[in-house]
Amino acid sequence: MRRPVVGLILIGLGAFFLALAPMVRFYVADQVVQAPLNRYQVTRLESPNSTYFDQSDLKLKNGVTLRANNTIRGDVRANGGNNKIAVWDSTTDIYDQAKPDTPVQIQKFRIAFDRRTGVLVNCCGANVEGDSTVRMSGYGLLFPIGDVQKRDYPFFDMTTKQQAPMRFGAVERVHGLATYRFTQQIPLTKTASLDTKMPASMLGLPADKGDQKVDRYTEAYNTMWVDPRTGIPVKQRENIRSWVQTPDGKGKMLVAQADLITLDKDQRGLVSMSDKTALQIDLVRSYVPAAAVFLGLVMLLAGGLLGLMRDRTPPPVEAPRRPDGKFGDAVPAAPPAGPGAPGASATSGAPAPGAPAPGAPGAPAPGSAAAPPGSFAARAAARPAGAADSPVVPPSEGAKPQPRRAPSDGRQRRLPSRRR
Fold first, then answer.
1. 158 plus 213 within the same structural domain
2. Which portions of the chain have biased composition (kind: Basic and acidic residues) (predicted)?
């Protein structure tokens, strides 16, 4: 292939890669950098030295270890075909480690959010504990997808059903991963009106006050360690205290206190998952566009240099033509005309100087053409007169000539020839 053709091909490929780079960065990246529709994740948290009110025997238990299993499941059909929206269901089971079959509390909610930004939207059956009238706002389970900054973010608290700021604190490492630490303060908030009544003595009131109607209040201090590359929390800490108190606030009792932290094993799993997600984001945002620009520039430069260089390839050799215009070797010339041919010279019949006269020994017979020198006929004509009666056998091809020996009776004998 000639250099100009190769140069044009390289220039075309270089232009293609240069056009590919912005398409991958600004179009393909938007299709890849988003939350998945189908998500299944189980995260375990633990709180040693906790306190909770056991309703089965109406006693406050202290120094117990509480476990919380949070399960997230994606509902791919709940968005009604709008793939820009992801719908996830979250269920958290809190139980005493000594009594795993008896849950202390179960929390359920469903969120719908924009897959690219992570912002909550009110659609697709979003609810908290079955209450679909709750209006969610801000962020829920994830931070901005692939773009977490060192600033405060509005975060929706599912327990109090209200929005509270998640404030940036510092950069800390979690199993070698540099994360952003965010904290959220939830003030004491009424979360439920209980139908049951409690004895006044348990609420710190005189026993003669009888049973009192109470409401439930909760306060929390939440901490999240977030991978800024992906927006995925890799570690959580929820310091929760829950109270029941009378409507006038005179009587109250602590019913739950826990400091739940993500288990170390689950932290490692979340870090690994976030690393894989970050690699996918970096591929479409940085690595592939940069490689496309580099290859495009190299190919454009190489193609331009090949186009400027002189082509030194020799031209192809054309096939020979005969005088009649057809391809092939030239037609051999006709043999010279004999003495009797028309137009022959009158002197052509005269013998050449030094040639034997007609009829002389060794002279060719009249009307016959002279034999080529070295041929069998020429050697036969040049034999001596005494050997005229002896037949001449041509030597076999490839055989060495045999020396002739004179017989004892003075006669010549023919040596047997080799078979062919």
1. yes
2. 314-327
